[in-house]
Each structure stands twice: as structure tokens, then as C-alpha cells.
Amino acid sequence: MTYLEFKGVSKIFYDNQDNENYAVNAANLSVDKGELVVFVGPSGCGKSTLLRMIAGLEEIDEGEIVLDGKVINEVEVSKREIAMVFQDYALYPHMSVAENLSFGLENTKLKQAVINEKIEYSLDVLELGNLKGRLPKQLSGGQRQRVALGRALVKNPKVFLLDEPLSNLDARLRVQTRKLISDLHKRLDATMIYVTHDQIEAMTLGDKIVVMNQGVIQQVGTPEEIYQDPSNTFVANFIGTPSMNLLRCQLNSDATVQIDDAIIQIPETLATKAKDFLGKEVIVGIRPEDILLVEQENGLEPELIEYLGSENIIYFNTPQGELVVKSNVSNRLDREKSYRLQFNSEKLYLFISENGIRI
Ligand code: ADP
What we know:
CATH class of the largest domain: Alpha Beta
Distance between the termini: 32 Å
Number of strands: 20
CATH architecture of the largest domain: 3-Layer(aba) Sandwich
Radius of gyration: 25 Å
CATH topology of the largest domain: Rossmann fold
Bound molecules: adenosine-5'-diphosphate
Number of helices: 9
CATH superfamily of the largest domain: P-loop containing nucleotide triphosphate hydrolases
Low-confidence stretches: none
Strand order of the largest sheet: 6-7-8-3-9-10
Number of domains: 2
Strand content: 25-35%
Shape: globular
Helix content: 10-25%
Structural class: alpha+beta
Mean pLDDT: 93
């Protein structure tokens, strides 16, 4: 059931010449109760602005946001029943962990016993019990972020808003805290909106992913849908590491495309969809893991091989552009050798050359 809904929501900023810039442009989105939705996209795509509009930290210029059946455009920040967690923790430096947790509850009508119970519960689930007397400066980054999460938790909000909460943590702590957030979400059945530029966080955390670019929602879907069924070249390229290869090729009249020496037959269902593009240039998409390398004399020579332990990332220059291949190390790849490319045609994507939309 839709719990939080964006209906044609826009945010306009004006530059020094008074030109309109849409930071968020006509966003439509439904979030169910208990869902963890991740907004992901490159820096400046509008994801924080969209989040801040839910919180009431940015005015909504066009459209409506509906939370739990009520339009919240004009509702005061303090009355929205949301809690926000920021990248830089935003803790009170002169207050202990326990005081930081209780501060937001002091002006509510809750009885002290209820407040204490909520704090003890948060300290417990976030494993902060033995740190409750410490000041923020006596905590590590990961511990501070757990306190910030605790502060959101005690408020029992309708929606948790998390704005790049892991960006200041090192790689190991990021993974730990990511698991903690995922656990919390499941345990509390909480509705969460999570903003990140990191597609791995988006893929691992999200029930639903919202991919944004230049203020516009590009696609909404489960991690599997976004990965396997990208709706345009932006999504195809942004989600997945290394990125999907996108090569400009002629779609021949017999529904084949050529990449280097390989002639690839487009599978029938896709060829039928692409019939209007026969004889024209299209963008062919293929993920690095869907290309096989076969050793061959006088074939393509790798430009670069990156050894990552469990796999190799191999870069080639083809007449159609740079091509990246992911291959596990059991294929003993050698920079001196040369290769033939073998494409899994079932895993091929076609996009319209002019606008990047999936065919
Ligand atoms: P993201 O969170 O995806 O990095 P933001 O939502 O912070 O992006 O910003 C989206 C766009 O809006 C950017 O182009 C940014 O420069 C612009 N922007 C954000 N806040 C303001 C502001 N207060 N005044 C003018 N432009 C802003």
C-alpha cells in the first residue's frame, strides 16, 4: 500500500542570471510502508533535494508529497514525524551518547519511563550500551553514526531519511554499518529513504532503487530489474561495475551487428522489436561478464589487464570503441597474447542511438 507518494514534484533553483534550474523535475514515485527505497545517481542529480523536500528542509515548488494519506507540502518540519540521518552525524558535541538520544524526546509528552525504555532499546540494538556515557569526540566514526541512527530510532518516525550516511566511513565500517541498517530496516519494518551516489550500496540495500540523473527519475525498480532490464543507456552505464559496454554499431539488415571481428546475430525477439532500426546505427550494450575471450593468434591484444584476485578486468580497443571484459583468473590471461571476443548474444541490449532509450 502506498505510504509516501510524490506527485509531479519539482524544485527550482535560480542562478545569478535568474535562469530557472530544475534540481528535481516532475518526480512521480510511490513508496510502500516498510519499504527501503534508495535514491541513487551521480553528484548533483537532485537526490538530496528530493529527500530534503520530504523532511521539509526545502520548499516544494511544484507538485505534492503525500505521507500517510496527508499532503505535507505545508506541514511544519517538526510536525512531519520523520527522522533524518546525515553524512556528518550532526550530534551535539557537549552531550553524552545517552543525552544525544534523549534530547529529541524531551519536549514530547512522553513519560520519562517510556523515554528511558526507548533509549535502552536503541542502545541495545545499536550495541552502544557500554558507550552511553561518552561524548561524541570519544567515539569512532562508525560509533558516531550508530548514535545518529539511534537518535532517529527513538523518535519512532513514519519515515527514516538517510542522506549518504556511510560516506565518511572507511570501506570496512561501511560494509558493517550497511548490514546494521539493513537489519534495522527488517527488524523495525521501517519505511526508509536512503540517498547515495554509490551503486553498490543501492544494489545491496534497496528493496526498490530510484535512479536519477539531472533532476529526472530515470528508472524505478528492484535491484534485479534495474540491473537486468535498464530502461536507457544512463541506467545501463551507471549500475554495475565495471559498467556495461556501450558501442555504436550498424544494425545490419539481417539483424546482425559487428564488434571487432565478431558478427553477432541478434536473437529473434529483440530483432523483432528492433525492426525499425535495421540498416541504422544503434547502441549495443553488453556487460563485461557476458563476453568470453578465446586465445587466437593475430587477434585483439589487451590494452590493460587489471588483476583483482578473483577476477581480471581486461581492456581492449575495438573499431567500435573501448571494450571491457570481466573474466575469472582461471583463464590465464596474458598481456602478450591476443584474443578473439565471443559474445553471449542472449545478453545483448540495444538502445536508440539518438536518445539512449532501450529498444
Ligand atoms: P545530489 O544530492 O544528487 O548530489 P543535490 O540535490 O544536492 O544533488 O543538488 C541538485 C542540484 O541542485 C545541483 O545542481 C545543485 O547545484 C543544485 N542546488 C542544490 N541546492 C541548491 C541551492 N540551495 N541553491 C542553488 N542550487 C542548488
